[in-house]
Design a protein that fits this description.
- Two copies of one chain form a homodimer.
- Helices cover about 40% and strands about 20% of the residues of chain A.
- Chain A is an alpha+beta fold.
- Chain A has two domains: about 325 residues, BirA Bifunctional Protein, domain 2 (2-Layer Sandwich); about 80 residues, Anticodon-binding domain (Rossmann fold, 3-Layer(aba) Sandwich), CATH 3.40.50.
- In chain A, strands 2-6-7-13-12-11-8-10-9 form a nine-stranded mixed sheet. Chain A has a five-stranded mixed sheet with strand order 15-14-16-17-18, with helices on both faces.
- In chain A, a hairpin with a 4-residue loop joins strand 16 and strand 17.
- The longest helix of chain A has 20 residues.
- The termini of chain A are far apart.
- Chains A and B meet through strand 1, helix 1, strand 2, strand 3 and strand 4 of A and strand 1, helix 1, strand 2, strand 3 and strand 4 of B.
- Strand 2 of chain A pairs antiparallel with strand 1 of chain B, so a sheet runs across the interface.
């Protein structure tokens, strides 16, 4: 193989060194998460870093199994670095703890390893902190782990995040009612996952199903929002399985309302990722500044039975490194905005004069030198915590876009306006 | 390969699951160690779990390199699970932190991986907690890490432990003065490591050296104890290098006396393990109930220079799992002894009558049903915290062996004796 020589001490792609403040920050976050999990009655589980590949692959699903780092023990058996901690925990419960009083509440904080093409935020070694609530099939158990996730994220200091919550039974029921081929079912799943109206319409055009089925499919991408989507979901449900999924989700939502965390929850019946694994609710947490889910979880009543007596189970795994990124992003956004206004660069001398007068009054006024579109400029301002964007409405006349709405300001009123910003 | 089928969920040898109390205990111990390291001004370093095998093997020495778990990245490069955390820390310092103000104080707590034949206490995955003090060549730096080790072990709750402290320069100087072949030098090193008088005498018989050299070699295994051994070591030193080692050790000892930790330290000039690695002091910590060192460390001024500018460095690595074993052993020994006396099983009816009378008075009296030798029985009693061993001195007459000495008790005085035990 023709490869460049390694620089001394070069690291492989996808892994990192942490030291000084970054290491301290991570350890402090882990301690906070540990503390929250403990307060909810969860106890630690520490599985080995590697074990037999066939144990880890058994239920991991094709994608996770392909991503495992495999190697050989000296007796020739295939080992693998754990790609998650849910499967080892399920193994421990199934093999060693099947006679324990239920429910069992476990948490873990540990590193997992997946061979992935390095992209932003995708490491090959990363730290997961998660919980598993085992032996309870009720909606209250579903709601507990979601409420615990909210509590953990808040304890970590994250304020702006949302959790999308679905129920795989709704989509499973739809597939069953349609009696699609496996291939057509997967095509539908991908279209729903992408919320692609065009792909869905193409599928509908090929479909023999009756009008109710067509209506249910077409409705799916719209079934996202507050509890009102459950009424609509119940209306389009084609079967007992679909109705049961809606009832379950209604119960979970009601419980989350009691936990007072629904501000962070968005119901989403079109959430269909991880279908091979989950058997009930499924959810993902997102925060600004991180392109991948911070956490994902759901109910997987079929996993523990692979290793011992069947047990219902629900849990989540939070990626600590991504949470750190979200917290960094939030800290950057929370620092006092360094810029009071950013101007679209229209080229009018009269508009440039507004910029100059703002500066002379003591305001921090910047010009967009990248020629961004209005949307991009607005997105940039939001991301940077810049509270005003000035869009040209003609020479010396700007529309000030603010969080609270927009106003057109004439040149004559400009100084008065600027003085209100700088107190 | 002909192999038995894995049981569902079977673990590979040398790795373990921890959960419930055992997991909590380990996390609590790690938190305690982290706290101590932090109080001494050490900051965390978190290297990746795996990196390029050639980086890890570069300075690991033949044995550690052979024990590494190796596997391949998808680009064909050889990776390995870290067999220790000193080498990755040295890499980080050499490559990334060479321009930082000195000294640098780092600690780590993380898992390491070594392929070893499973024996009692030898795992293939285990947790190391350690420190590295980088950029200080002084005896005060040597003393700091030893005093920190004492503090950490005490904070963990361990009371009974000893640290053997040597200086590899003394033995290196001896080898240099003798101009031995590499083979003869290694033979000598092994004999010294084993403290084998017979092997040493065989080596001395083959040796051409002068009387002073012979005297130094013969003295080596005896150079263990308190600071008085330094006088003897100085007396037999053959060269400036040997004298410098003794001076360094005297300075370290003096500093450890100021730290008030010399109760736990045993000087040992015959400590010659890890010679390939260490360049100055070297030490190991031991505790009852654990057959391997709890911790080992020393000065390694040549390691960081492999990755960047040379730096003096001293540190230790403590095996958390072994410390847990030592703490368990101590807790078992500290529980009130459940047996007041254990009798040698002599078969005399009159002696058995003493056992019966002790029991009827309320004492807890056991008979050794394994027919152990006196030495084995005494060792067993010590280990189990049994405070009296009754050895037969003829029918109805026993010698009571106690920590404070021994006494012969006649049958007539037996009841009076037993009453003193049970208060």
């Amino acid at each position: 193989m023709n490869r460049k020589r390694l620089a001394p001490g070069e690291l492989p792609p996808g892994v990192a060194d942490l030291f000084f403040h970054a290491a301290e920050q991570k350890l402090a976050l882990e301690a906070t998460l540990r503390d929250r999990f403990t307060r909810w009655g969860y106890r630690p589980v520490i599985p080995p870093t590697f074990e037999y590949a066939e144990t880890l692959a058994s239920e991991a699903g094709v994608r996770l199994a392909e991503e495992m780092y495999r190697f050989f023990d000296r007796d020739g058996r295939a080992l693998a670095l754990r790609p998650d901690l849910t499967i080892p925990t399920a193994r421990i419960v199934g093999v060693k703890l099947f006679d324990q009083p239920l429910p069992l509440r476990f948490y873990y904080i540990g590193n997992v390893f997946r061979y992935e093409e390095p992209r932003a935020g995708k490491r090959r070694e990363f730290t997961q902190a998660g919980v598993e609530l085992i032996g309870a099939a009720e909606a209250s158990a579903d709601a507990e782990v979601i409420a615990l996730l909210v509590d953990a994220l808040q304890a970590a200091g994250l304020t702006d995040f949302r959790i999308t919550l679905g129920q795989i039974g709704f989509f499973r029921g739809l597939l069953a009612a349609l009696s699609l081929s496996a291939e057509a079912a997967e095509r539908l799943r991908i279209a729903v996952d992408r919320r692609s109206q065009a792909e869905l319409e193409a599928i509908l055009a090929d479909l023999d199903g009756d009008d109710r089925a067509r209506e249910a499919i077409a409705a799916l991408p719209m079934l996202a929002g507050g509890p009102e989507v459950l009424d609509e979901a119940a209306r389009v449900a084609l079967s007992g399985e679909m109705e049961a999924a809606v009832v379950n989700l209604r119960q979970v939502w009601e419980r989350l309302r009691q936990y007072d965390v629904t501000d962070h929850i968005v119901l989403d019946l079109a959430q269909v990722r991880g279908m091979a694994y989950y058997t009930g609710i499924l959810f993902e947490a997102f925060a600004p500044g991180v392109g991948f889910p911070l956490a994902s979880g759901g109910r997987y009543d079929g996993l523990i039975g692979h290793f011992g007596p069947d047990q219902p189970a629900v849990g989540f795994a939070l990626t600590v490194d991504r949470l750190l990124t979200a917290l960094d992003h939030q800290a950057a956004a929370e620092t006092a905005p360094l810029i009071d206004v950013i101007f679209q660069d229209c080229g009018h001398m009269e508009c440039l004069s507004l910029v100059r007068r703002a500066r002379s009054l003591g305001a921090r006024a910047a010009l967009d030198v990248l020629g961004r579109s209005v949307d991009d400029l607005m997105a940039y301002a939001r991301e940077q915590g810049i509270s005003r964007v000035a869009l040209c409405e003609g020479p010396g006349r700007v529309r000030l876009m603010m969080e609270t709405g927009s106003r057109v300001i004439e040149a004559a009123a400009w100084e008065e306006e600027v003085r209100t910003w700088i107190g």
